[in-house]
Amino acid sequence: MAQLSDDCFAFGGALLGLEEARRQIAAMFRPVTAIETVDLRDAVGRVLASQITARIDLPPQGNSAVDGYAFRHADLAGSGETVLPLQGRTAAGQRPANVAAGMASRIFTGAVMPRGLDTVMMQEDCTATETSVTLPGGLRRGANTRRAGEDLAAGARALSAGRRLMPPDLALLSAIGLSRVPVRTRLRVVVFSTGDELVEPPATLMPGQIYDANRVMLLALLARLGVLAVDGGILPDRMEATAAALREAASGCDLILTSGGVSTGEEDHVRAAIEAVGKLAFWRVAIKPGRPVALGEISTREIGGGEVAGKPLLGMPGNPVAALVTFTALGRPLIDRLSGAVYAPPPAMRAVSGFAYRKKAGRREYVRVTFDGDGVARLFPKEGAGIITSLTEGEALMVLPEEMVELRPGDTAPVIAMGLLHG
User: Fold this and answer.
1) Could you tell me the pTM of the whole model?
2) How much is the mean pLDDT over the chain?
3) Distance from C-alpha of 112 to C-alpha of 61, rounded to nearest angstrom
4) Of 185, 267, 322, 404, which residue is the least packed, with the fewest Cβ within 10 Å?
5) Inter-residue contact 368 to 258 (CB < 8 Å)
């Protein structure tokens, strides 16, 4: 069972609730992106700039869902088998055959239904000769057919503005006849790591050094969101140098992301740098892992030296697990807000806990879990916020809400699959 005192950031001061932090993000910032039209093949990850209305029915015509025999349901006998003579054959892409009353027609998957025919019997359920087909009874009218417009009717909304386009969205847009789509221009984001202990692979590690893991992770997360991500490198543990780098980055980007240096240690300089060259909106959010997270704005200067509106900065913790959690909880809504996307938290399902866990009231905790063969959640054996293998081998985050103080075996709680944190 987790101990309540196991918290390296347990010092005084008010903590901002996660939902309040998200509300402040929505209130402080507006979309900063313009609108452009791109080829559908280049639109994955981009934010849809305007609502798309279907110009045609989807599917455009009624068609068969199976290979079989099409007929008028009214021609079936009241019970038992019905034998109908055959007339014509229609394959996908062909003009449908003309079929007289009282007759059936050979048809294939995707083929347009001949006029007047309303039902299809699967070929494996029929007995056919060259001239007739025997149909068993009991089939409902319209079986094995697709109605025109049953997926989407002409004039209906296909996709709403603000949606981040995923591969199925592109399939839908193509199916209704679009080859180009209006989207928001890409957000430009600069990513920094901080800390004198960090070095780039494959350099040889000296005593006290570690390889930087966060920056490559954050850049990859941004790439999956259709963002123009810029590698800002590693900032040293010096306030003046950090402030100067943030000021310079702000002049050429829409958003700055940093990891590390946001706590209260003597070598943590990001918060002070924000206040030196901008303003701090909030610091320390009631989540675990990820409490020391800062949101601020970095000012830029006009040629004449006057201050202009600042560029947002999100300072995330240096531990990789905390960095991923805070990126998901706060970075994603901030990026969506600036990009013009409609933010929606990653979907969660409920799972049964197979472990006991205690937490403090008033903060939201994200606990890494795996699942046993019965689908019961098990606590990942290593809980530290620096355990990267808990992200690669863990299967989900169990979300323990602010009001909860104790989770018992058999209780249920929301879980977010790890894969949903990455896109």
Assistant:
1) 0.89
2) 93
3) 6
4) 267
5) no
